[in-house]
Amino acid sequence: EAGVTQFPSHSVIEKGQTVTLRCDPISGHDNLYWYRRVMGKEIKFLLHFVKESKQDESGMPNNRFLAERTGGTYSTLKVQPAELEDSGVYFCASSRAPSYVYNEQFFGPGTRLTVL
Amino acid sequence: SQQGEEDPQALSIQEGENATMNCSYKTSINNLQWYRQNSGRGLVHLILIRSNEREKHSGRLRVTLDTSKKSSSLLITASRAADTASYFCATDESGGSNYKLTFGKGTLLTVNP
Q: Is the peptide bond before A98 cis (omega within 30 degrees of 0)?
């Protein structure tokens, strides 16, 4: 069984540019989560999809971040325009449904975003 | 302390020794999970323990959970150099449909050959 994959592994962009991160969850996992870790801080939750619906987006920092999961398969996270403080590692995780039984979350390798 | 705070922050041991890491949290939880992160890589899921469980084993790993103290420990027995990594505990709060994980800052374990 393939694990969670993320693309790209690294991205270096200028402040003000747009970046789109992609996550492919484990096949059959309805739950998809985005997290990020900025330098020196804890890994923080961003949002949670159940299939194509946003279940919880309480962790999204501001409206420069837009996450989508069309068709309930892969997800994208777009940052537009990027700011310096957006630099960090963005992780995607997936888990089976229902969440209250199967909340083992399996993480991808992360995308390291550097905003210059 | 913060939700899912690990202790110690760093631990250095010799190969073959046991390593114990602790985690404290603040709210009632459904589950507590431990993850490992090797330098520059993704998070690897190690083990999940449910709030109604007290102890769980997986290979050389032993996890305990004390919900009355809101704490958990991860024991790695007979450590190997390959166990060198950062270890994180993560909790999800009980109640409602909130399954997001809250992480601590992690324990950096170094196993010297």
A: yes
Which chain A residues in 47-106 lie under 8 Å from chain B, judged by CB atoms? 48, 55-56, 58-59, 91, 93, 95, 99-100, 103-106
Residue A97 pLDDT: 72
Residues B71-91 as b or e (16 or more Cβ within 10 Å = b): bbbbebeebeeebbbbbbbbb
Residues in chain A within 8 Å Cβ distance of B98:
56
pLDDT digits (tens, 9 = 90+) for B37-56: 987 778 999 999 999 999 99
- Who's near B63: CB < 8 A, 6+ residues apart? B32, B34, B47, B49, B55, B56, B57, B72, B73, B74, B75
